[in-house]
């Protein structure tokens, strides 16, 4: 059972949310649909009941880590693959779910599935970069931190770039490299922002990468050297 954590201070929450996700994205109506194809009507009462099903019995205006674990299971997500991120507060939950018109785990599953598909399209790259930046801020140990723990970064990368994502195989190899070295303990913002673009540009054979003229963070030069020396096993 995950340990309980205190709610984040309002200033910390505000800092974590900057830069914010594009306003146009947050104002979109939910893409969740009923089985009949009609838009499922949002119910504030249903949203409240849904929140209550995960809420802390002692602090009923928040969902603690144990409740978040239950929420993940209701969404058929593995909670162990997600970085520890404290609690969900009722007020912020109401605002967020109201914007996307989601009031149940089934609707949230549909919404997340549709959003994941949409965000893989090249036209969504700027918006996805905002989401990745938000994820970095969310994972910081405090609002002033300039880096996040390595294990947390790798877990969040796995969420943002799963196996089925175009960059999934690159992310997997990069994380394999990071796990194999004892030199790297944290990932800073520059490394976090640069990694996806680096994965896109270097390709699978790394021929386009020249460490002598590279402007990438040194960590990426080390990765290329490791990847060339440790090629993946041939596909079965």
Automatic annotation (TrEMBL):
One of its GO terms (molecular function) is ubiquitin-like protein binding. GO terms for biological process: protein neddylation. Residues 42-228 form the DCUN1 domain. GO terms for cellular component: ubiquitin ligase complex. It comes from the Eukaryota. Residues 1-43 are annotated as: Disordered. InterPro entries: DCN-prot, DCN1-like_PONY, PONY_dom. Residues 9-18 have a biased composition (Low complexity). Neddylation of cullins play an essential role in the regulation of SCF-type complexes activity. This is Defective in cullin neddylation protein.
């Amino acid at each position: 059972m995950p340990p309980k954590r205190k709610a984040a201070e309002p200033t910390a929450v505000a800092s974590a949310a900057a830069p914010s996700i594009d306003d146009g994205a947050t104002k979109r109506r939910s893409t969740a649909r009923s089985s009949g194809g009609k838009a499922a009507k949002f119910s504030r009462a249903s949203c409240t009941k849904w929140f209550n099903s995960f809420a802390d019995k002692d602090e009923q205006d928040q969902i603690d880590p144990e409740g978040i674990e239950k929420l993940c299971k209701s969404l058929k997500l593995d909670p162990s693959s997600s970085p520890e991120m404290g609690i969900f507060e009722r007020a912020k939950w109401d605002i967020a779910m109201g914007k996307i018109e989601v009031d149940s785990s089934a609707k949230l599953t549909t919404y997340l599935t549709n959003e994941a598909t949409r965000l893989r399209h090249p036209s969504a790259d700027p918006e996805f970069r905002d989401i990745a930046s938000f994820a970095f801020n969310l994972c910081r140990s405090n609002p002033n931190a300039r880096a996040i723990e390595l294990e947390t970064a790798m877990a969040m990368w796995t969420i943002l770039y799963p196996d089925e994502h175009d960059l999934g195989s690159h992310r997997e190899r990069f994380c394999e490299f990071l796990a194999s070295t004892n030199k790297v303990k944290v990932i800073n913002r520059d490394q976090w922002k640069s990694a996806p673009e680096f994965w896109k540009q270097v390709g699978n054979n790394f021929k386009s990468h020249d460490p002598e003229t590279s402007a990438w963070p040194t960590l990426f030069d080390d990765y290329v050297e490791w990847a060339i020396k440790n090629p993946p096993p041939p596909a079965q």
